[in-house]
Amino acid sequence: MPQTYDIAIVGYGPVGATLANLLGPSGLSICVIERDPEQFALPRAGHFDDEVMRVWQTAGVCDEIAATVRVNPGMRFVNAGGALLVDWPRPAGEGMQAWSTSYRFHQPYVEHVLRRGVERFGTVDVRLGTEVVSAEDQGDQVRLEVRSSSGGSESLQASYVVGCDGGRSTIRRAMGVGSIDLGSHEKWLVVDLELETEREDLGDFTIQYCDPLRPTTYIRMVGNRRRWEFMLMPGDDPAQIAQPEHVWRLLERWIGPSEARIERAVVYTFHAIVAERWRKGRLLLAGDAAHQTPPFLGQGMCAGIRDVSNLAWKLSSVVRGEAPDSLLDSYEQERAPHVRHYIDLAIRLGGILQTTDATRAEERDRMLGTAPERLISEKPRLGPSALTVGERPVGVLSEQVRAADGRRFDDLVGYRFAVLVSQSFMKELPVSTIGALARSNVAVVQDCGEGYLLRLGAKAVVLRPDRYILGTANGIAEIEALLPRIPCPSTAEQAA
């Protein structure tokens, strides 16, 4: 008889590990399946934002991660002559998510923290060095055939399987779904260096050098790490350009081999694609398995973390019998338009950077050089679903307020539904409404956030576990109308 789990997660990168951390406290049986026997030791993703830090706060790993990162002051696009074309400054202080708005990080450090976080949960079974050979949705279960690196094979079963297994996803192939090509596929050389000497003159800002002769990116990573990215041009040999002698020729404008060590030099193709479907029965996709974006916004990994923050509580509710299976349909409905917003913006900024035609570059410089574009960080609304019916602020990411004692709101409520209510309105709520909220395991907070409620024009706001707004209320009838949309724990769980 195959070993059976409630949920199987295929892929143990940052997205899969975050999903495991969010599901761990549910008590459900989770299996994490990862092909590689060891954690990947080299850097890949290099940026995340305040919303992602807020997810990791919910997962209980934010303090360890915060100790390893650096606040990113922003990004600038400049032309070949150094003139500013696009400016995207990031404030250094705490933003509306109660975290800084932009961070640089070293992925191996963060993955280590996430994996160590999963070790807290005895119901999570992690299988490293194990490859999924096939996945078959059998109607009431998914049957997985897996093979270990030692050569052994076995069958597993899970109620649901989430493919967090990257751009070449085995689970996406098992679903038989194609991808929507958004028309951006450029090869870039990514070079990670470790400095041997201090080089503060290299600067803290991310710089996009919009030089038609060779578009280039400079990034200050954490500690003594720096990253350069070079667009491959006609005539470049991808196999040769990553060799040290070629890399140092590209870097000679900024740094020499006596000042740094090459940690990694590899050619990537920056794709812009979205899977045609993110769910097929009991199989689901998240992260790069569902979508890929050019890196010019630093939102690739962020999108995957948002995916699993949206998905984890829905999966838990469905598996526990608190919500119908149809709740999972809202996952792609909400997330796909949201991620497309970021991909479209990344493509537009990539168009500014990757202009290699001299005439077009001159036109770009004339237009933006006289009036540089200034970007601000955006928090798009979720796509339409049964949970996002209504006008803004429904479906918008909430602010994270602080309690009088300084604690962040999410630390007060945990990964569940919550109501932030004004103290005056709390006194108006009937005992029956308060009881209904308690039966639905909704946290009620009334000692903070009065200013936020005032900005919303509401006496109460109901927040989902992923911190997006379910609805607002200015009267008892309005808040009671939101209650049927909150998954309710079973009678047996309440009694326990």
Automatic annotation (TrEMBL):
Gene3D superfamilies, A to Z: D-Amino Acid Oxidase, subunit A, domain 2, FAD/NAD(P)-binding domain
InterPro entries in the record: FAD-bd (IPR002938), FAD/NAD-bd_sf (IPR036188), PheA/TfdB_FAD_monoxygenase (IPR050631)
This protein's UniProt keywords: Oxidoreductase
Domain FAD-binding positions: 5-344
Origin: domain of life: Bacteria
Family annotation (PANTHER family): 3-(3-HYDROXY-PHENYL)PROPIONATE/3-HYDROXYCINNAMIC ACID HYDROXYLASE, FAD-BINDING MONOOXYGENASE
NCBIfam families: PRK06183.1-3
The protein's name: Bifunctional 3-(3-hydroxy-phenyl)propionate/3-hydroxycinnamic acid hydroxylase
Source organism (scientific name): Azospirillum endophyticum
